[in-house]
Request: fold
Amino acid sequence: MLESIWVIPAVTFASFWLILFFGKRLPKHGAEIGIAALGIAFVLSCVAVVEWNARPADEVVEAGHETGALEEGHGGAEVDDEGHALGEVQTLALESAVEAEGGEGEHEAEPIRSAVERNLTWFSFGGVDVTVGTAVDGLTVVLLFTVALISLLVHVFSTNYMHGDVRFTYFFAALSLFTTGMLLLVVSSSLLQALFGWELMALCSFMLIGHWWEKKPNSDAAMKAFLTTRTGDIGLLVGIVIMFFAAGQTFDIAAINEAALSGAMAETALVAGAAALFIGVIGKSAQFPLHTWLPDAMAGPTPVSALIHAATMVVAGVYLVARLYGVFWEAFDIGAGGVNPIALIGGITILIAAALAFVQTDIKKVLAYSTVSQLGYMVMALGVGAWTAAIFHLFTHAFFKGLLFLGAGSVSHAVHSFEMKDDMGGLRKFMPVTYTTFMIGSLALAGLFPFAGFWSKDEILLGAAENGYRLFEVVGIVGAFMTAAYMTRCVYLTFFGRYRGHGHPHESPPAITVPLIVLAVFSVGAGFLNFPGFERFFELTENRVFLLAGVEHHSFEVFPAVVSSAVVLAGLAFGGMLFFARHLPRGVTARSGAARAGYSFLVNKYYLDHLYTGVVIGSIKGGIARAAYWINQKVIDGVVNGVGIASKRTGSWVYRHIDQQVVDGAVNGAGFGAEGFGGILRTIQTGRVQQYGALLFGASAVLALTLVIFI
Amino acid sequence: MDGLDDIALTAAVFLPLVGAAAMMLTPREHDTGHKVIALLTTLVTLAVGVYLLVGFDYGRADVLQFDVNTSWIDVINSRYILGVDGISLPLLLLSMFVCVLVVIYSWNHFPEPHNPKAFLILILVLETGMNGTFVAQDLILFFVFFEVVLLPMYFMIGVWGGEQRQYAAIKFFLFTLFGSALMILSFLALFFQGGQTFAIADLVAVASDNIPRSSQLLIFGGLFMGFAIKVPMFPFHTWLPDAHTQAPTQGSVILAAILLKLGTYGFVRIAIPILPEAAMAWAPWIGGLAVIGIIYGALGCLAQSDMKRLIAFSSVAHMGYVMLGIATLTEFGINAAVFGMVAHGLITGMLFFVAGSVKDRFHTLELSRLGGLLLQSPRMGWILGFCAMASLGLPGLAGFWGEFPAILAAYNPAEGLSEVLFRTYMVVAAVGTVFAAGYLLWMFQRTAFGTPREEFAQARIPGMHWPEYVAWTPMLILIVVLGLFPGLLFGLTTDAVGGAVAALGGGS
Amino acid sequence: MPAVFDAPGIDYHAFAPEIVLVTTLVLLLFVDLVFEERGRWASSTVAGIGLLAAVVPVLTLAVDGADRSLFAGAYAVDNFALVLKALFLVAGYVTVLISTDYVAEGDYYEGEYYFMLVSSLLGMTVMASARDLVSIFVALELLSIPAYLLAGWRKRDLRGNEASLKYYLLGVFASAVMLYGMSLVFGVSGSTLLSDVGEALSRGAESQPLITVGIVFIVVGFAFKVSAVPFHTWAPDTYQGAPTPITAFLSVASKAAGFVALVQLVFIGFLGREDVWAPMFWVLTALTMTVGNLIALRQTNVVRLLAYSSVAQAGFMLAPFAVAADIPADRGGVGAATGALVTYLLIYAGMNLGAFAVVMAVARRTRSAEIDAFRGLFGYAPALAVLMVIFVFALAGIPPLAGWYAKLVVFKTLLDAGSVAAVTLAVVAAVNSVIALFYYASVARAMVMESPADAGSGRVRVPASLGAALGICALATLAFGAFPGLIAELGDLALLGVLP
Amino acid sequence: MLVNQFLILGAVLFCIGVYGVLARRNGVLVLMSIELILNAVNINLVALGSLQGPEAAVAGQVFTLFVVTIAAAEVGVGLAIVLLIYRNRASVDLDEVDLMKG
Reply:
């Protein structure tokens, strides 16, 4: 399976065409094809995971930069089969080698599984063979699993959610293609090929966000998404080009990582390339300041949002950084600690996005900003060298964010709106399943023990702390606090209080609830994959690159975990206080434990309450967040849109004044000039024969004279 | 099959004329008769092209094949030399291919004043000119074919065009003629300084050694004018939007798909191999104009209110990428350029086809009046979207391979060219891709998305007719196929380009 | 000392073409005399046959190939002479063809018409062989005087009179000036034989002013004939006023005769003195092309437009003279220039006659030569329109129509010389060829892209002879365009024979 | 020495003739002025011819004869044309003959 991993994207791609051509004629209008395809893809990915898990560690990598000694060890490992035994042998051999070099004592060689590569020449051009192929390692299989699962559930969900839509069939085709894009990106062994998946997703996001294109706002949102990410792609293109040459004319990702780590790349090229690539990441993963397209992307159908946010599109950026970690590690010297662009961007994103999530009234917008903020976590994690943590968070986040979006979908399915303030409230009575699952998702997102989010977030904070990024640890903690708070608000507005909408909301049918339940299970369980002592996830994803780079993996520690949990609880309490406590007279306390906690907290420390409400709330809820939002909409978004408008204006100006008048004018002018001159010359032709004669003789006389004089 | 090989190219070039002659003898009334003759002629010509494709020895793509070499004008030692190599073959086929489709499309799309006879005859004459240009291996012969296309296109625009047709037609004519006047001067200068021969191969061999650098620069300047106007490069582009906008659909398609390529082909086939030194000296300027063209064309697009004019300006931008690739003087760059030519031919050709059909249905191309095409003619709408995506260089479609490799090549141009400068060009070009996305999607949104304007809300818009299906499907398929398997084309060009670049003393 | 008179031996074969022409003249007189009115049809036929008959000896002489020289070199029959004679005769024949119906339908004297035409042609054929100041002068007058009369053939038409008068006065004035120049040159060299003149002039450093003035005046005399700016002023008016066939005749044959004379005078007589004529021709060339083209831009009458276009074309034909001296001998020297000129003349004859033929055909219906009269021609007479398109774009020099090759050889000559002056001239010529396109295209535009001025447009009836003329011209234009080799050979052959 | 005087005479005649051609309005007088130019030519031919020795002298005189003869023919034609003009517009004023211009 690992060798022929290409089958997985192939399946979904096939389903795209099948749906496109035959979908309409089928009883379920093509949905069945999509689901079947994704089902197959999911099963295959599971197989892949299992196989990878079963794969013996056949390669020995000595952590740290000196790769000289390990090369022959590595070479030896290839021929031999029985990985573990060999691993130890190598270890011994290497320790001696290490001692010989001295100094690098603290790293020890580790046996790991080598990636399964399969390449064939795509085309050769300018004397370079461009290969196309697949490379499978832990990272790949994890993502395959996640993407396939989420996408499958989204498909199932959509069968009901999109039922009766004008372009139902077409919607499923697009979903399949979207998934294909992500899968292709994940399995690619070469950057060029990855670019295909990358842009394929851009295309599909355009199609899906603009799914209801009859309304201009939707198509605007679609264009905004496409253009913003495309802007990032400037960086990506340039970055790929630079990498191509810096790594000796190859697009192969492994080769590029090697080149970067072995110091074969020129420093400038490396930094420039990495920076350029990271711009691409900023665009795709909606990092500050190119994040503004993501909330607008909510114009698309909810399942699409779920897919985009949970499993595809936005995580592509994070994946790219993880994939090319060698490059970024070297370029930004991540090992050194302190501050670096990636961590910085990530950090900023966490905070601004979280702040923005406070003031949204559209439930999807809240989730959208929370996604941005969570992506911030992942990017920051990569920035602080917590590679495993980043991937782990990507993994867990996929489940609970998918869950939350589908939950939101389920809610809107019931109330036909996304407005929490106007059309929701008190829904937990009407839709228990949705309510429960949504709660689980929220808590997971907030990172409360023992939900999945807790483990991954904790690992990130830990990594930041251990690798000398204290600042970002703090950022992370603050972020955690805010997350907890705004999620509480969201949950409250949706499910508590009295129902403010119209009609009678009802629980959604199984097609919708089942996916919710599945995801809920994962949101609870996924975290235990890195349970202290039993770190399957780490072992699974451990790969050559970050070992070479000497990335540290830090396993669970109690104290930070307690701290962060405390912060989260504080956040929840704070949120509860804001939203539940206010309804004290109507006796919320009776209904909600969380509220009771918050309430008692309030009663006991009333003056604090005054302080909070007056200052903290006022500032956060009222001031800072709104300010942030204002800045976001007016300044950053304004810039993004402004660029569009500006360039359009420039266009028309240049066209009207330069092109039509100067450039073209010159040409036409010459024409008229010639004619005018002709007109003047015509006056020679007076029609008087003797003037002709005079001209004749005069001319000859002049000619004769000049020549006589000058010769 | 030696005999056949010898006449193959001659047939490829002159069969259309035979068809045209046949049509001249057919009385004007027999519309279908004319259509059939034209179609058969183009098909037979294409068959010859296929024969060439099959018989072509891909191992030796860098040498001329099917070559013919007989005396023509002994007095000036200009000979009738034809031949195809990896660079000309794809373009030759493109030209044959597009002509067939154009004839098919014409089946029920004759612009006013109808007169299929004259219209189709012009197309056939055009085909002769275009095919000839791509296979001519003698400067004078090249020049003749290069010019043969002018008259038919002049009349096609001037007779079957839009309101401004006469202005557009004469503008096109004068611009190109100006360029070719200087071009022929350069050809003659090459003749005298390059050893009294017009044969391109011989000139490639001797010219660069015999000709002093100073006059090389001048001669290249002349060639540059000739080709750059045809491409067209900024600032010689102003004939293009008028010509495209005013020309009938078929005219625009041929213009975009093939005529523009004559210029770029001229650079690759003649200017650079014969005068490598001068090319080196000129390359920075060419590259500069190319990237200016990319941005400038994009800005021009954003300013347009007319769909067709927008597409026309997009050609300026896209040819900018082609020229940038050429300007790098590297194998990467020139391969990219050739691919770019073909890709742009297919994609922009398609865009013009669609624009034409839209005009047929709505009798306007004003973006402000269009909208909701997806509702009224979904298939056409999606095809338009597809072409827009292809045109903005979406990976997996042909356009990408004209764009990305050009950017790639600009990162390290041939030795002797300033890396800093070209890397700047690279970034600008990369920015251009966003602009491209911008105007194309904007155009697509305006025309296809939303709901129809009230003036057309009730109008019954006919779906696509069979000629449209027949004419478009092959192009669409080719766009995808080339996008997924660029090797098909790169495999042809890469050796030939290698040969051409070798003249530069090794590029990349 | 008394010179002993010994009768020169006459080579009748060499004279055959002229003899045939003279016979034709006599026949014409006879025909006109014998069957007055009934002979209307006859005279044109006689003239036509006579001209074709005169081609035969030209061919035999060509086959024979030897250069012949009579009267101590005053009269030479070499390839140059033969090619040109052939050109004159064929051009004359085409003129007869296009005249036939035109003259027959107007109530003009026919016998005299053809008589004049043929005698003018006789003058031209003589001119082709004249290598002596006197014979050149005689030939010039012989071809001019009938032309003056032909120009005013439409006696009652004021424009006709005016055309004739202007042509006559200026022509005579110009030839008077030329004669004065000849007298000076003769004075310096003491011989009328061009070859002697050549030696004498290249020797005679003293009396430089006389030589200069002499050369200038002589060149002016013929610059007038070829309507080079600023001696072109008569051409438009005369062309417009004269009967269209005569206009065609003047613009092709008579112009060619002028160039023939120039070739002989400049390349034999003044060979040593390029310091005088090279700059002069440079100026004339540049002026002629540019002014001709620019004024042509503003014309609304097709005949007048063609008149100016022929002025501009003359500029191209003058170009070889401007640079002939710079062409290295190993590349043919002045021979190359001659070749280019002859090639141009041959091609130009075909396309220009054709253009005028179409004008006549159209005028038969519209009774006008204004451009507006041509509007929508493609609508009701597609064949004529296509032919006109072919001719005008051939004149513009668009491949694959013959004109391109004519332009090419001129460019080639210019770059062959390679001097700065030459290259500059080449660029000027290039720009001019673009300007020229504009007005040529305007004719095509009117015919093809615009709708007829008057709605009811019946077909145009093209009489047989006119059709034949059109056919010949079109064939030549297309064939020479596709296979310029044919014409190029001739042009290349047409070198001045070695002189005793 | 002697020759120069003939030359000058010729030149003078030539100039007078040219003046006449350009200045006189009457067609007939213009024709006569042209005759003057031709006579200037004749004088030159004869004088310069004799200067260059007997051969040239003969040649010059022969040339002169040709000029004289042809001049006669020219004038004949010229008068015919002027007459024609007179018939049609009852005037021989050349300035009135300007239907065609530009």
Observations:
- The longest strand of chain C covers residues 68-70.
- Chain C is about 75% helix and 0% strand.
- Chain C touches chain D through 44 residues (CB under 8 Å).
- Residues 270-500 of chain C form one domain.
